[in-house]
Amino acid sequence: MTIPKKEKAIKVVNKKNTNNGSDAQKQSSEYARSLIEASLDPLVTINTEGKITDMNEALANITGITREKLTGTDFFDYFTEPQKAREVYQVVFAKGSVADSPLTLRHKDGKLTEVLFNGSVYKDDRGNVLGVVIVARDVAEQKWAIELRIANKELAFQNDEKEKRAAELSIANKELAFQNDEKEKRAEELIIANKELLFQNDEKEKRAAELVVANKELEFQNDEKEKRAAELDIANKELAFQNNEKEKRAAELDIANKELAFQNEVKGRRAAELVVANKELAFQNDEKEKRAAELAIANKELAFQNDEKEKRAAELVIANEELAFQNEVKEKRAAELIIANEELAFQNDEKEKRAAELFIANKELVFQTGEKEKRAAELVIADIELDFQNKEKEKREIANKELEAFSYSVKLASQYSLSLIEASLDPLVTISTEGKITDMNEALVNITGLERGKLIGSDFFDYFTEPQKAREVYQEVFAKGSVADSPLTLRHKEGKLTDVLFNGSVYKDDRGNVLGVVIVARDVTAQKLLSKYSLSLIEASLDPLVTISTAGKITDMNEATVNITGIERGKLIGSDFFDYFTEPQKAREVYQEVFAKGSVADSPLTLRHKDGKLTDVLFNGSVYKDDRGNVLGAVVVARDITEQKQLAEREIAGREKELMRIEELERFRKLTVGRELKMIELKKEIEVLKSKI
Q1: I need a labelling partner for 292 at 20 to 30 A (CA). Which of 2, 26, 29, 72 fits?
Q2: What is the distance of C-alpha 171 from the center of its chain?
Q3: Is 529 exposed, middle or buried (0-12, 13-18, 19+ CB in 10 A)?
Q4: For the chain, what percentages of helix, strand and coil (3-state, to nearest 5) are there?
Q5: DSSP E strand stretches across 626-667
């Protein structure tokens, strides 16, 4: 029987597909949760109505409100300017993203926090916008740095002014002592200076005209350079495109050749299988005809034997009647013999007649006795035949009962297979070796929108957006015996598309011959949505964000990581995370601390760009787990602190410079005061000398 193996194939595919789908979806959900919590800044996801759907602990801390109370509330209510927050949120939906919009968050206790609002939309697999991912960067520290920078500038300006005033005071004192006689000279010099100024102005105008001409020439040359650069860029792109096209054509030709060879091989197998199947079918038809003919002959023989039995029974009744009649005749003959003996005396002429009659009667009696023996022999044969026919009838009844039991078991097995098919929540379908649908469950009817009657016998590949790709996967099942998680897209009759993972295996008869394929198509729309949600969460972070496996290999990252390292995503994926730091061993120790403690915060490290540029960062990370608590990897955020470090260094340098200037001013003040005292004493001495004269 082929049904149990088909049931086994259905169970294996169902179980495998269910486990893979549920595990992948749970792992994606845990991954998304870890990404949210990895952000040091308040992070929140909002639906299209402006309601909060998810957030991290940083948002709960900055607002002072628990996650449960935040979920489902209006996002705008937590800002000092709700309308401005709503307008920025609408800009995200209009443009797809927004960066560095200044807003102020309000804590439930009244504390205000100035933030920079950064957000981007996230979508489903068909491009429909589902909501917004927002990161609110706390700019209090940044604002303090800006204010400190302004204060330093003001202090530097005041120090410069003080120095100018001190210099001016010194010059004024000197000029007061020895430049009274220089006024006339200065007047003459002023006249000469005016003449020189007129000459210089004329020269400046000439130079300005020459500079205008030179600027125009330079602008023309720059335009020409840009045109040449653009032409060269276009030529390079065309060359790269042509090379890609050549490679694609070569790959397509290679694939086409392989497909042609495989199809020819499959056609040969199908032709051989068809010849064998036709021979088996012809043999079975001959056997059926022989059995039908034998059954007809047996029925005729049984009817003939029944007729013969009835005839023999009738003949036996007649023979018994004749025997009784003959006995009566014998008695009559005996009586007549007695009479004849008594009449012997006077009936001599009757003796010959009676003797002749007696002779005839004896012959008849011998004949009747022979007939009786024949009838007795026929009766024995009839009994044997009747016993044989009864045994044959019992055999027929046993065979009929076995046939009924077999039919019932086949019916039960068919109902069991149907129950297994319908038990699958995912679309399940069985397909013949010709690619025709032979059976399916209600889930396939729902996902295609077609009735069972129309699906039965139709081509399985016609219900996919890429029929050729579906055919190739189907052929792979026959070639390898099974296939797992091949991505395809089913089309509903009304146009709705559903992304599925194609899982299938062959089922065979009791002689090992492949009868068809059992296929389960797992709907992965929710899983893809979770994946897109995770990607949106990753890209929403302004800081470099990366996910790492337990072996220290990079599994995913955002664009900020690509920019800070200068390395493409394809090269980053699967590489060692520690190789991009100036101190790989220290980075490895911090990473191991994440797995040991579950998280780590503000560990200072330095990232290296491929061109040699160094970026100081604070390393923050936490592990993420599956639904059974097993650690799958770590989510790491590297906060760029280069600007903060530079500000701190400039602040220290500014303070040191300020102290040096204060010391210089103090020395100058002492010097100036000393000189003023000496001048006063000198004036007093002059006055004394004048009075003496």
Answers
A1: 2
A2: 81
A3: middle
A4: 70, 20, 15
A5: 631-640
